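As a warm-up, study this chain.
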Amino acid sequence: MFYWLTELVGTIPGINVFRYITFRTGGAIVTAALFVFLFGPWIIDHLRLAQGKGQPIRLDGPPTHLVTKKGTPTMGGLMILSGLVVSTLLWANLRNPYVWIVLAVTLGFGMVGFYDDYLKVSKQSDKGFSGRARLGVEGLIALLACIVFVTISRSPAATLLAIPFIKEFAINLGWFYAIFGAFIIVGSGNAVNLTDGLDGLAIVPVMIASASFGLIAYLVGNAVFSEYLQIRYVAGTGELAVLCGAVLGAGLGFLWFNAPPASIFMGDTGSLALGGMLGTVAVATKHEIVLAVIGGLFVVEALSVIVQVASFKLTGKRFFRMAPIHHHYEQKGWTEPQIVIRFWIIAVMLALAGLATLKLR
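Now compare it with the structure written out below.
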């Protein structure tokens, strides 16, 4: 919305700053953070009244959770999404199709997560939306988004898969790229969802990944920087930096209430939406493989569940004491703050490694 003020350039002094993505990204961060800070308590109070007993706690999870986390309301993702949407609509260039596609996937995944949370709260059970049905809906949303990406690009490069560290080499997947991209988006959404198991554990790595992809989007969408760094230029994706900034700001506001001991959980409403958003930005900017590095923590969490299930089915034994892997360390005696802060440190290191791929080619 504020971007339209650039039409007044020449009539109002200083209005030219609204042309700059960096300025509007900073505005998006501050706006989203303030929105969640101001309206967060009101949202939490209403969710607590509506949910009564709060989020159901897994009976097969760590025993301490039945005491420390019982009664905490969920669906805190509504706080993040509201701050994200308001800030993006205010600061992004709304003529940019990439902004609308990423927003659509984010909100679509958020609606799937909201329905899952609603079923859990209303039934007071940790079993929500059918897993296959949920993946089917997510897959459809993601596939449609990837088809639109390929269509609006109108370039042969739209179906190329870039390989980090290797200059001018890419694999042309053709229209199979849409399926591959959908897999990335759905996988990202569910990986973040699996990571969200301790107070503050998921939101900080999400903010770190969002900040990293905000920088990547800005560079990829800039012809000069992309040529200098020898990364593939994708016109229009620079505007996604504003959306990533909105996620960062909303995440900061949410962390204020989600820090241990959490006043609210983001729930599937937030984790699926944010994971889907990261995956969609990675696909839009042609940095799908880099997402696996920057979001490596999410990948490890998801792999720990896959390994656990496979091991139990094949051998009848569990590979980890409990999955996802953060619960494994809880069972080993690590305290919740130890796990959360150490995983944050890992997320920072992985983000730096992922950003290094922009230059090391």
